[in-house]
Design brief:
The chain is mainly α and about 55 residues long. It contains 2 helices and no strands.
């Protein structure tokens, strides 16, 4: 696992926490959807980049 993959996973988890927090505060669903999508993309990039699959 490289530093970049660890950073992407960290950013993904951070954004996921923000999306959950915003959802609990009843903020607009579009904001939660954007944060959730960004979180999933960052997590996927970090996991794929870490080389777990090879």
């Amino acid at each position: 696992m490289t530093g970049l993959s660890a950073l992407l996973i960290f950013v993904g988890l951070f954004l996921l926490g923000g999306a959950i927090s915003f959802w609990r505060q009843k903020l607009p669903k579009s904001v939660v959807a954007v944060l959730g999508t960004a979180s999933l993309l960052a997590l996927a990039a970090g996991i794929l980049r870490s080389g777990v699959w090879s």
